[in-house]
Specification:
This protein has 425 residues and is of the alpha+beta class. It folds into two domains: 3-149 and 309-378, D-Maltodextrin-Binding Protein, domain 2 (3-Layer(aba) Sandwich); 151-308 and 387-424, D-Maltodextrin-Binding Protein, domain 2, CATH 3.40.190. Helix content is 45%, strand content 16%. It is built from 20 helices and 13 strands. α2 runs antiparallel to α15 (336-346), α9 packs across α10 (230-245) and α19 packs antiparallel against α20 (407-424).
Length: 425
């Protein structure tokens, strides 16, 4: 059993132990008073710069909520689940918890989160509706979006021009065809440029936009695995063909975090499925590519266009001793100035519609592209067992890309494992 599954199992046990305790912890001042010391757990606002950004924002919060004191615990997404689980098991959960898209059902289903005093219809006026949906479970709003992480297609316009390609691919057939035309190998067959980089991005987050673009879904409306449908198999088959049949990319050639910036900036890839902050990385490592307008974007599309949308959501513990103060902090962090500051630091996408005209967004074409295509955004998760299931996607995709299993075999096996996790509740 992997670490992710162990943590997920521990989370379920801890939540079951605390879910029946009902009401705020002793000493709470009640929902009608915004006062008290609240503990905030955040995986964003990293490093010294991030800490200063958050502290500056919290000074503003303090001005309007003088009776509230905020104690901050900084962590990373890699350690977030463990931190949350430990705090819940100890009987002293954080008051405000920033967590990822897909995390709401696992926590809300076990009674760990408090519903917020919000209505989806009202939130959808201020935020992109697709950004609001991941914060809802069983018809109740449990979280507010603070920032979005998106994945879509990026390409080098100069390489396309050299290959005689006038624009980005419009479907899977063109995506694969363009990748073959853009791939370069030397006389000895060594890869010098990948036509399509699908490996430097997280494999789950590469597969999912392809799944959605092919008309598929992660789960059915009643919570059963659907990613092994014909659409899902077709999406994984495309990835497998890019690697094994077309040889448009080799394992180890395009590495995430390599010196010199992303493969697209290095000229080691002509196209990629990647994160919106690739733009920021190119600005830092190869700014001339941006000045010369050599970076373009495209939606992953086949049966429909699809944009992967992850992100960070603010939530309140059901056991907070000061729920009114905690809810006030979540609303503040999701408001324009704090969320803009958080997004600027990470090169991410604001969830607030009003920020589309901000200087930050108008100066970042990747963020602009994501915000312009939010109507085609899809989010992962959707079932309470998601934190157990998601960690198995990487091995599943790799087994197909390495030729150990067919795409159908790989996804069917994962569906069986996922259904078992779902059935356990």
């Amino acid at each position: 059993m992997g670490k992710t599954r162990v943590l997920a199992a521990a989370l379920v046990t801890a939540l079951l132990a605390t879910a029946g305790c009902g009401g705020p912890a002793p000493g709470g001042k009640g929902d009608d008073r915004e006062a008290g010391t609240i503990r905030l757990l955040t995986p964003i606002f990293e490093g010294a710069d991030g800490k200063k950004i958050l502290e500056d924002q919290l000074k503003t919060f303090k001005d309007s909520h003088p009776k509230v004191t905020v104690e901050v615990d900084y962590t990373s997404y890699a350690k977030l689940n463990e931190k949350l689980t430990t705090s819940i098991a100890s009987g002293r959960p954080y008051d405000v918890m920033l967590m990822g898209v897909g995390w709401i059902p696992p926590f809300a289903a076990k009674g760990a989160l408090a519903p917020l005093d919000e209505q989806k219809s009202d939130l959808s006026q201020r935020f992109y509706e697709r950004a609001v949906d991941p914060g809802i479970y069983d018809g109740k709003v449990y979280g507010l979006p603070i920032m979005l992480d998106t994945r879509f297609g990026l390409y080098r316009k100069d390489f396309f021009a050299e290959a005689g390609l006038s624009g980005p691919p419009r479907n899977f057939a063109e995506l694969r065809d363009y990748a073959r035309k853009l791939t370069k190998r030397d006389a000895g067959g060594k890869l010098t440029r990948a036509g399509l980089d699908i490996l430097s991005n997280d494999l789950r987050q590469t597969f999912l936009p392809l799944l959605w673009a092919n008309g598929g879904d992660l789960f059915t409306a009643d919570g059963k695995p659907a990613f092994n449908s014909e659409a899902g198999v077709g999406a994984l088959q495309l990835m497998t063909d890019v690697i094994r049949t077309d040889r448009s990319e080799d394992f180890g050639f395009t590495q995430s975090g390599a010196a010199g910036g992303p493969p697209l900036a290095q000229g080691r890839a002509a196209m990629m499925i990647g994160h919106n902050n690739v733009w920021q990385a190119i600005q830092e490592t190869a700014p001339d590519l941006i000045k010369q307008d050599k970076i373009g974007f495209f939606m992953i599309a086949n049966e429909r266009p699809a944009l992967f949308q992850g992100g960070t959501i603010g939530t309140v513990s059901a056991k907070s001793a000061h729920p009114a103060a905690a809810k006030a902090l979540v609303k503040f962090l999701a408001s324009d100035k704090p969320s803009l500051a958080a997004n600027e630091q990470r090169g991410n996408v604001p969830a607030l519609k009003s920020l589309a005209t901000s200087e930050y967004v108008t100066g970042n074409k990747a963020v602009q592209f994501a915000m312009e295509n939010m109507d085609s955004a899809h989010s992962e998760g959707g079932v309470p067992a998601w934190l157990e299931i998601r960690g198995d996607f990487k091995a599943t995709v790799e087994s197909a890309l390495l030729g150990k299993k067919t795409p159908k075999q790989a996804l069917d096996e994962l569906a069986t494992t996922a259904q078992s996790a779902i059935a356990k509740g």
